[in-house]
Design brief:
Layout lengths: L26 E6 L5 E7 L7 E4 L10 E3 L1 E8 L8 H13 L4 E4 L6 E5 H5 L4 H15 L5 E7 L2 H20 L11 E5 L11 E3 L12 H10 L5 E5 L3 E3 L4 E2 H10 L25 E6 L4 E6 L12 H8 L8 E4 L1 H4 L14 E3 L2 H6 L6 H4 L11 H11 L2 H21 L6 H9 L4 E3 L12 E3 L16 H6 L1
Parallel strand pairs: 1-4, 2-5, 3-8, 15-17
Antiparallel strand pairs: 1-7, 5-8, 6-7, 9-10, 9-11, 12-13, 14-15, 14-16, 18-19
Helix pairs in contact: 1-3, 12-13
Bound molecules: iron/sulfur cluster (SF4).
């Protein structure tokens, strides 16, 4: 789709505007986002009327630099439309809004975050124009949509009221795939919608692994591939099962290799350590490895504080977004955390040591009962020392593993000191060690292309100082 100019829209509209960021100094207003609330929802209905409606203040009635609650409700009608398409159509709202000059849309569902810049506002852009663009692009892209209503809400009370209803609908959608497992189907689905900003990213969507954006589950993907076989969502034949626990399939590897232009060779569907899937940037949560305890923390997008490793969601997200495959870091959806296959290649919930309280509550029913109290939150610990203490007190399985490793290492040292011969037991010590973790090239501000590999290491440092060595000086010494 090239540039699309609508005579009655005061700014340009088209893919050339995708990827445009609206930074704080250029911002006219912010809608929804982390400091407010809102959502977007597409519903298939029988009687859409082709209307665009704004409920509440339009942009010219808002204060400059203000933050406002915001909802986008799109109702579509058409004889071939099925409810299963709602999730996939909803995901396109992100793309269509980003086509509008000076408007930035991030995330999905009840996590949306929109900014309008001053230039576009000054050119005359108003919410009703955004509504018309959404309506026209839906009808242009999907000819089976016969009528389309777009309702944009800025009235705070109304947004709040509709948000609760939308959350119920998201929950019902996610529950639909709960009874299907990866082994029950012959094909998975792939999505490359996010390649516009993460060119090597390929989402693999399976019954047990809903897309990391949280917006597309297995049934949504199946409906989308059926109705638009040449679109961004496509079938992925499973091929041969290479490793059941990690979730490695020959068919998935072939597709990932091809769609990532050869950048990614192999992916495990259910591991954050061994060839994890790539992450784009839309994920609802990040799984991150904590070497001190040989376990994982998971932090969701809405969590504002710092994780026990001393950094917030945004910095962790930066480590693995952009289509990179980074062992130890993995973008996931909350729905994937509810799957019985969640990180099964890394021992699943037995390796989860920290969650924000809110997230822990959301996924409570998926956490094995014997582990629930052993997982720390921000209320229990604020750094890794406190985390270790907490896990020891609670006898978390991760700490038991570490203690086994430490005991064996001590035994090995004693044996070496007494100059006895190496025993089979000592060999076992080496094999128990903490797994290898390759840090991303951009870690600690290093330039891309540099890889740090830590083998069986537990490293603790209060400060890392990286200085550039002057080779000329060194030579002249
Ligand atoms: S995160 Fe994945 S499934 Fe969701 S839109 Fe992007 S590529 Fe598609």
């Amino acid at each position: 789709m090239g540039e699309i100019m609508f005579d009655d829209i005061p700014v340009s509209v088209g893919p050339m505007n995708e990827g445009e960021r609206v930074r704080s100094p250029d911002m006219y207003v912010e809608l929804a986002g982390p400091k407010s609330y809102g959502f977007e929802l597409v519903k298939v209905v029988e009687n859409a009327e082709d209307k665009v409606e704004v409920v509440g203040k339009d942009l010219d009635e808002m204060e400059e630099k203000g933050r406002y609650p915001f909802a986008i409700i799109v109702k579509v009608s058409g004889s071939n439309l099925e409810e299963d398409l709602e999730g996939v159509l909803e995901r396109r709202v992100h793309e269509f809004i980003n086509y509008i000059e000076g408007v930035m849309h991030l995330n999905q569902r009840d996590q949306i975050w929109i900014r309008v810049n001053k230039d576009s506002f000054n050119k005359g852009l108003r919410l009703k124009h955004i509504g018309y663009v959404i309506q026209r692009l839906f009808k242009a892209e999907f000819p089976f949509i016969e009528k389309c209503d777009v309702i944009l809400i800025t009235d705070a009370e109304k947004v709040k009221e509709e948000l609760e209803k939308a959350r119920e609908i998201y929950k019902k959608r996610d529950e639909k795939t709960k009874s299907i497992r990866d082994e029950d189907v012959d094909v998975f689905y792939g999505c490359v919608m996010c390649q516009s900003f993460a060119p090597t990213h390929v989402c693999i969507i399976t019954p047990d692994r809903p897309a990391l954006c949280g917006g597309i589950n297995y049934l949504d993907a199946r409906a989308a591939a059926k109705i638009d076989p040449n679109g961004p969502i496509f079938e992925v034949p499973k091929g041969e099962l290479i490793d059941e626990k990690l979730g490695i399939y020959s068919g998935v590897n072939e597709v990932v290799r091809e769609k990532s232009q050869g950048a990614i060779e192999e992916v495990s569907l259910h591991s954050a350590l061994v060839n994890p899937c790539t992450s784009c940037g839309c994920f609802e949560a990040v799984v991150f490895y904590i070497p001190e305890v040989d376990g994982f923390g998971v932090v969701h997008r809405g969590f504002k504080g710092e994780t026990p490793v001393g950094i917030p969601f945004s910095s962790l997200a930066g480590q693995c977004s952009g289509g990179k495959q980074v062992p130890g870091f993995l973008g996931v959806s909350i729905a994937y955390m509810m799957s019985p296959k969640f990180l099964q290649g890394d021992e699943g919930w037995e390796r989860i040591v920290w969650l924000p309280k809110e997230l822990k509550e959301r996924v409570k029913e998926a956490i094995p009962k014997n582990l629930y109290d052993k997982i720390a939150t921000e209320e229990n610990v604020s750094n890794t020392d406190e985390l270790i203490k907490f896990l020891k007190e609670k006898e978390h399985p991760c700490i038991k593993r570490i203690e086994v490793t430490e005991t064996k290492v001590e035994e090995q040292e004693v044996t070496e000191i007494s100059e006895t011969e190496e025993t089979e037991e000592n060999k076992e010590v080496e094999s128990i060690g903490i797994p290898t973790m390759t840090l991303p090239g951009t870690f600690a501000g290093l330039p891309p292309g540099i890889k740090i590999v830590l083998y069986n290491a537990v490293i603790k440092a209060e400060k890392i100082v990286i200085t550039k060595e002057d080779f000329n000086k060194k030579k002249n010494k």
